[in-house]
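Appendix C reproduces, verbatim, an entry submitted by the partner laboratory led by Prof. M.T., so that reviewers can inspect both the input and the predicted structure.
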Amino acid sequence: MSDQPVDTGDTWRWVDRLTESRRRRLVRRPDGGQSTVEHVDLPSLLEQLAEAQASTNSGGGRGKSSGGSRAPLDLTITSLLAEIETLTVEALIAYGDRPRYRERARYRQGRARVLGVRQLDLAASVRALAVTVVDTEDADLIDWWASRFCAWVLRAEEALDLDEDGSVDVVPVRGVPCPEPECGREHVLEDRDGETVRTPALAISFRDGQVLHVTCRHCGTGWWRGEGLNALADAMAATAALPSPAVADEVPSP
């Protein structure tokens, strides 16, 4: 093993983006008035994902179509949260640690007493996983998880429409149907300025020339690195140029 300390900066940078709130500087310029600077506290990405999911599940807010069907954004957020929860819990157990839980207060109707409900504390669990991984001092393992945390941040920002710097490019994939057996759609219908337009179902998201993931805009299925994206790339090779970053989806051994 090298005597040089393992660089864990990327790991904590992405974990902090996922789990911690941040302050955003806003400049307000009212018509004819003087500019004012305001700092707003924004919830963590995990909190924003949970709030967006709760909003759409309750039938209000964003992502609810007029026909009552779920929009792809709902499925994207639900799928991403499920992936983060599943992989985080599995990894903690595999590495000899445990998921973190919190007691959630809940009132029983007609009674004053409070019932404690155990609920997964996803942010605390993700941070515990980062600590466990960093403590191994295994450079390859730390790098693998830094890439995974980065992937979750970028996917969360895109799902929440937080691409503030406009650095994510979305390219439609023409002539290739969704490979999901229950979908198979090649096109979706979108409303653009009051006009219904038929567009490709599959879309590739790029940042700085690198593939983030591929999404079906009909069923909401996404492919992020690993074998799933590699298999999809093979199917699309005749119609689209798609880099194939190979990162396994299973939890690596420490």
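The first helix runs from residue 9 to 19. Additional entries are available on request from the coordinating office.
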